[in-house]
Design a protein that fits this description.
- It contains two helices and five strands; from the N terminus they run αβββαββ.
- The chain has 123 residues and is of the alpha+beta class.
- The chain has a single domain, classed as HIT-like (HIT family, subunit A), CATH 3.30.428.10.
- The protein has a five-stranded antiparallel β-sheet, covered by helices on one side.
- Strand 1 and strand 2 form a beta hairpin.
- The protein binds adenosine monophosphate and zinc ion.
């Protein structure tokens, strides 16, 4: 995979390494500022993660300047859900923020879950 546009990356961050191409990733969808790929440990039939290419720790770390980026991430998540055939059945978008929410990877991401009845929260 070719190296992607280098913005602000943390060399110790697994998701940043996917953005730079250091860690191979099969993109489900990619734009200039977002990247979507399948979760390595899926919690539903369809489980995709969407990230900004720029390293931002969580939604709580986004600033006023990131308003467009947050919107773009959610917009792209709905596009990915549509492309993966999730619209008719419905789907869920989740972003864990911080320790109480169980955020493990400290690079902001949205989980897109669907393809089956989801029931209570899974991520
Ligand atoms: P969270 O608990 O919200 O931080 O979610 C982190 C998610 O990243 C989990 O669902 C993991 O399964 C997923 N994950 C961790 N490493 C990878 C990886 N290398 N490729 C794809 N998904 C990953
Ligand atoms: Zn990162």
């Amino acid at each position: 995979m070719t190296a992607r546009r280098n913005e602000t990356h943390d060399p110790d961050c697994i998701f940043c390494r996917m953005v730079t191409g250091e860690t191979p990733v099969e993109a489900v969808y990619e734009s200039t500022d977002t990247l979507f790929f399948r979760d390595i440990s899926p919690k539903a039939k369809v489980h995709v993660l969407g990230i900004p290419k720029r390293h931002i720790v969580s939604l709580a770390h986004m600033t006023d300047d990131d308003q467009l980026l947050i919107g773009k991430l959610i917009h792209d998540a709905t596009k990915v859900a549509r492309d993966l055939g999730l619209v008719a059945g419905g789907y869920r978008i989740i972003s864990n923020v911080g320790d109480d929410a169980g955020q493990v990877v400290k690079h902001v991401h949205f989980h897109v879950l669907g393809g089956e009845r989801l029931g209570p929260m899974r991520c």
